[in-house]
């Protein structure tokens, strides 16, 4: 079902084996959609999208279908599952099911925000370093090296313990921890694009560096960007849930999958559901995003592309040794 | 299976017999009997070494045919030239001769009989044994074919030790083949790595590797593409002498008719996966019978004559979308209704096999060549003047003491081999390379180094066309956006005015307005180069700098682009700097020429003087080394028709 939604979004982009002409035309216009669609139709992509789709739906629709308030004390502490309380009660006698249904969306939003922040900062740094070269390159990349030397999680913990468990701070801290790695990947991808003549052609027009980077180079970085976004999202989810488990995140009594694991671990033998369900949801989500990202990467580099005859035929017959992109 | 001479087999009925020819051919006076007797079953006579029958390669996914009905046979010592443009399937055939199909392709029918053994029926281990030992391959790009991590000696030894039975004395054989490939074994060549050799040396090493097991068939896939003319000349000489001294049967794949004309005794012209014309080289080039061969010959530039090049419009059909009748019919000036009815069967005329129902008419038709009308001599003024230009990349000096003057409305050709600094010169002029000293004056005003320090007006008036149209257009933008961006930057036109200008300039480069909404990767190489031209012309420059603009294109497309450039130059009163390594092209487009060597100008003057009466021996050598279509009879033809 989730897979269908995916290919539905990319419908204009991918032909069902029709003649290549028009399809190729539409592919360009929304290359990212086309890649997503192609990825969703691989086996790997279908699995990944289904898993993460289910978890995202749970988190997004949960608050509307939860039977009780997540903070109301409706049963006994660590009550085992009953027909009224399908997953039993938690450490303070709240309904585990309701807390599970309510506890995901903040986590997801934070992960998305942190990813966006990290990608934007990292891409700016990486593309800038690669295109400007010279001193800017040295400065940016050495900064990246220094940032990379910090252990990611410890860095975030340090900030949060100094300033306090503010959600925005966690988002920025996690985002910043992604930025250096993103910058490195995007820098090498940009170096490739910079070598092509259309960039020089833009320089010959007298276009400024910012315009060249945004208008000429960035649209050619869609594939590496998509892979990075997927990877970083997976990572953000794990780190933010982990921080919540450690108590840095939403503060009690707010429901949160990470916090719930912490709250209920002492009663693992009495009512395991308060720990098991959030854990499984986080695991499914990260496995799902990771698998889907893998599918995107494979489609982007052509390992698992649906057979594209046009590409094959281009290869037929000798051509002068032209370095094709 | 056997069909009488001239009989038309029903289409599809005799795929195997199709190209396998006709008894009469054998005795044809003057024509070596390449074509095997038709009886395919026992047709492998004692002297026929390689026999290809009904070879067919298809796409594995959709079963569209990439190559079909390819048949020919060769005796020992014979060299067949397989010519065609990109996409004609010549490399696919070359690889299939060794029983190999690239990923996504499959050999689906036919036989490749070498000494009577069908290579396509061999098992994997037998095939491995045959490859290198009895059938060897020389790839197009030696830099990619040699392992960069292994020494030359190791790689040569590997080729020999893979087939232990070849020779008991490996070092002696290596010394022998190196000498044959005209490589100096006395130096530490064997201890070097591929990157320490020049392109020509690398290609000779690849040749030595191919010849070291004394194969009886050797397949050469464009071995000289990308080499300078002089190096190419040496490699061709080497190939010729090796084939001759060991009686090796060779198939030489090339897109360059002139190269083939000098080397091979038989030529097979491929189009859309089929051999459309097959016959003795001199004869095919003297009186082509297939319209495609004719078109290719008309498109090939000649260093001897200044003439208008006639390209072939349109594009070859792709596998899977080939027309029902003759694949060439949509681009053919001689096409009649019957042409698109059914694929033309091969017709034997004399020693020639042609897939065209109008071959007789075409062969009889006169071939006309129109000389280029010289442009009225330009005003005496100087548009661009270069004085004492010296350019460097870091510490390396690339150009020194360059003096140039370019009059308005004239075309200056800058000629030189790779590494001569011609592209650097162009980049200094347009502003892409800032590391230079000297004086550069454009229309009276000095020009700064680098685009950032030039005025917008200077940037507009000098436009640059890149060598490779596959990288010079942003793949994420439509043609309209690409051209519009240029206009928007240099002019203050309204949207309507801009659209009108874009339509106009597209029409000027012979593209219809619909191209504006296409993306570069939907265009062929020639169309892309036209878009690049349109992008430059739309801002009405005074000087167009063309850097090897046709070197990534097929010869039929090259002719179209050259002709377009020539016309635009005259119509728009453009000055042009035309940079090329191809001396033959210079004649058709330029009025004056300079010859660059190692970053210095060795000769300059009017084109006819430079080419006909070269004053410098370097220019003379370049002229001598150009392969020529008309160069007398190919050396092999001196041998008796029967061969050996």
Report on the architecture of this protein.
- The complex is a heterodimer of chains A (325) and B (644).
- In chain A, 70% of the residues lie in helices and 0% in strands.
- Chain A is built from 15 helices and no strands.
- The N terminus and C terminus of chain A are likely disordered.
- Chain B has two domains: 264 residues, P-loop containing nucleotide triphosphate hydrolases (Rossmann fold); 242 residues, Rossmann fold, CATH 3.40.50.300.
- In chain B, α5 packs parallel to α7.
- Chain B is of the alpha/beta class.
- Chain B has an eight-stranded mixed sheet, with helices on both faces. In chain B, strands 18-19-20-15-21-22 form a six-stranded mixed sheet, sandwiched between helices. In chain B, strands 2-1-4-5 form a four-stranded antiparallel sheet, covered by helices on one side.
- The N terminus and C terminus of chain B are likely disordered.
- The chains are: A mainly alpha (325), B alpha/beta (644).
What's the short story on this structure?
The complex is a heterodimer of chains A (325) and B (644). Chain A is mostly helical. Chain A contains 15 helices and no strands.
Termini distance of chain A?
36 Å
Tell how many strands the DSSP assignment of chain B holds: 22
**Bulk shape of chain B:** globular
The top level CATH class name of the largest domain in chain B: Alpha Beta
**Major sheet of chain A: size, sense and barrel closure?**
none
| Class per helix and strand makeup of chain B | alpha/beta
Corresponding CATH superfamily of the largest domain in chain B: P-loop containing nucleotide triphosphate hydrolases
- Low-confidence residue ranges of chain A: 1-27, 304-325
Helix content of chain B: 25-40%
Report the radius of gyration of chain A as a whole number of Å: 23 Å
- Tell me the strand order in the biggest sheet of chain B: 6-7-8-3-9-10-12-11
Biggest interface found:
A-B, 35 and 62 residues
Poorly predicted regions of chain B are: 1-44, 631-644
Helix content of chain A: 55-70%
């Amino acid at each position: 079902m989730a897979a269908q939604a995916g290919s539905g979004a990319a419908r204009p982009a991918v032909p069902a084996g029709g003649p290549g002409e028009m399809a190729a035309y539409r592919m360009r216009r929304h290359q990212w959609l086309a890649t997503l669609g192609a990825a969703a139709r691989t086996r790997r992509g279908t699995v990944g999208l289904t898993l993460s789709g289910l978890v995202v739906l749970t988190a997004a629709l949960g608050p509307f279908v939860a039977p009780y308030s997540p903070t109301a004390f409706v049963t006994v502490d660590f009550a085992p599952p009953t027909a009224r309380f399908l997953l039993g009660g938690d450490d303070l006698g709240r309904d585990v099911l309701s807390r599970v249904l309510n506890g995901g969306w903040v986590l997801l939003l934070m992960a998305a925000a942190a990813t966006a922040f990290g990608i934007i900062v990292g891409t700016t740094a990486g593309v800038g370093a690669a295109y400007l070269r010279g001193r800017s390159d040295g400065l940016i990349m050495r900064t990246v090296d220094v940032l990379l030397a910090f252990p990611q999680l410890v860095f975030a913990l340090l900030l949060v313990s100094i300033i306090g468990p503010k959600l925005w701070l966690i988002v920025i801290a996690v985002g910043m921890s992604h930025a250096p790695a993103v910058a490195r990947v995007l820098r090498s991808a940009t170096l490739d694009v910079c070598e092509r003549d259309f960039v020089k052609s833009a320089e010959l027009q007298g276009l400024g560096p910012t315009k060249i980077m945004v208008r000429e180079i960035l649209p050619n970085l869609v594939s590496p960007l998509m892979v990075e976004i997927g990877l970083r999202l997976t990572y953000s989810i794990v780190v933010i849930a982990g921080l919540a488990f450690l108590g840095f995140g939403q503060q009690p009594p707010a429901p949160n999958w990470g916090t719930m694991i912490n709250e209920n671990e002492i009663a693992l033998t009495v009512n395991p559901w308060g720990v098991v369900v959030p854990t499984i949801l986080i695991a499914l989500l990260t496995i799902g995003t990771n698998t889907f990202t893998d599918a995107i990467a494979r489609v982007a580099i052509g390992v698992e592309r649906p057979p594209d005859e046009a590409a094959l035929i281009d290869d037929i017959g000798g051509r002068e040794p032209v370095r094709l992109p | 299976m056997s069909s009488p001479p001239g009989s038309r087999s029903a289409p599809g009925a005799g795929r195997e017999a199709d190209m396998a020819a006709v008894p009469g051919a054998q005795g044809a006076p003057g024509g070596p009997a390449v074509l095997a007797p038709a009886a395919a079953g026992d047709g492998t006579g004692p002297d026929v070494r390689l026999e290809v029958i009904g070879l067919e390669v298809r796409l594995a996914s959709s079963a569209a045919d990439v190559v079909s009905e390819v048949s020919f046979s060769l005796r020992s010592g014979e060299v067949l030239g397989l010519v065609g443009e990109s996409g004609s399937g010549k490399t696919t055939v070359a690889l299939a001769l060794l029983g190999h199909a690239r990923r996504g392709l499959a050999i689906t029918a036919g036989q490749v009989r070498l000494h009577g053994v069908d290579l396509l029926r061999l098992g994997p281990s037998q095939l491995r044994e045959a490859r290198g030992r009895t059938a060897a391959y020389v790839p197009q790009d030696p830099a990619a074919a040699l392992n960069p991590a292994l020494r030359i000696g190791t790689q040569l030894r590997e080729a020999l030790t893979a087939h232990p039975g070849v020779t008991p004395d490996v070092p002696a054989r290596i010394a022998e083949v190196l000498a044959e490939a005209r490589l100096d074994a006395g130096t530490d060549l064997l201890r070097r790595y591929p990157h320490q050799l020049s392109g020509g040396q690398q290609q000779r090493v690849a040749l030595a590797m191919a010849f070291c097991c004394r194969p009886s068939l050797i397949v050469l896939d464009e071995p000289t593409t990308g080499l300078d003319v002089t190096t190419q000349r040496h490699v061709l000489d080497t190939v010729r002498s090796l084939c001759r001294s060991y009686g090796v049967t060779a198939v030489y794949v090339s897109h360059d008719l002139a190269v083939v004309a000098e080397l091979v005794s038989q030529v097979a012209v491929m189009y859309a996966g089929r051999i459309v014309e097959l016959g003795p080289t001199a004869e095919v080039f003297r009186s082509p019978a297939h319209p495609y061969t004719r078109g290719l010959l008309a498109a090939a530039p000649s260093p001897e004559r200044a003439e208008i090049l006639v390209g072939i419009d349109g594009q070859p059909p792709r596998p899977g979308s080939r027309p029902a009748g003759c694949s060439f019919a949509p681009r053919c000036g001689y096409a009649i209704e019957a042409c698109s009815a059914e694929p033309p069967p091969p017709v034997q005329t004399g020693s020639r096999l042609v897939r065209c129902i109008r071959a007789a008419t075409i062969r009889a038709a006169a071939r006309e060549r129109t000389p280029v009308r010289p442009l009225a001599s330009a005003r005496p003024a100087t548009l661009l003047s270069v004085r004492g230009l010296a350019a460097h990349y870091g510490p390396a000096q690339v150009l020194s003491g360059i003096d140039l003057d370019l009059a308005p409305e004239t075309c200056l050709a800058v000629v030189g081999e790779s590494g001569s600094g011609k592209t650097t010169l162009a980049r200094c002029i347009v502003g892409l390379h800032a590391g230079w000293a000297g004086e550069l004056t454009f229309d009276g005003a000095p020009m700064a180094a680098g685009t950032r320090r030039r005025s917008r007006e200077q940037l507009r008036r000098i436009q640059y066309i890149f060598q490779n149209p596959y990288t010079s257009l942003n793949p994420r933008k439509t043609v309209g956006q690409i051209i519009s961006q240029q206009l928007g930057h240099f002019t203050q036109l309204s949207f309507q005015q801009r659209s009108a200008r874009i339509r106009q300039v597209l029409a000027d480069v012979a593209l219809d307005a619909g191209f504006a909404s296409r993306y570069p990767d939907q265009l062929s190489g020639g169309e892309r180069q036209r878009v690049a031209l349109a992008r430059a012309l739309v801002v009405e420059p005074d000087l167009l700098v063309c850097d090897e603009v046709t070197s990534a294109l097929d010869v039929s497309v090259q002719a179209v682009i050259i002709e377009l450039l020539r016309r635009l130059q005259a119509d728009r009163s453009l000055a042009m700097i035309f940079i090329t390594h191809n001396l033959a092209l210079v004649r058709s487009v330029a009025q004056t020429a300079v010859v660059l060597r190692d970053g210095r100008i060795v000769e300059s003057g009017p084109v006819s003087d430079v080419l006909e009466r070269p004053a410098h021996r370097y220019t003379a050598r370049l002229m001598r080394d150009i392969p020529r279509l008309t160069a007398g009879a190919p050396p092999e033809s001196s041998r008796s028709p029967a061969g050996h």
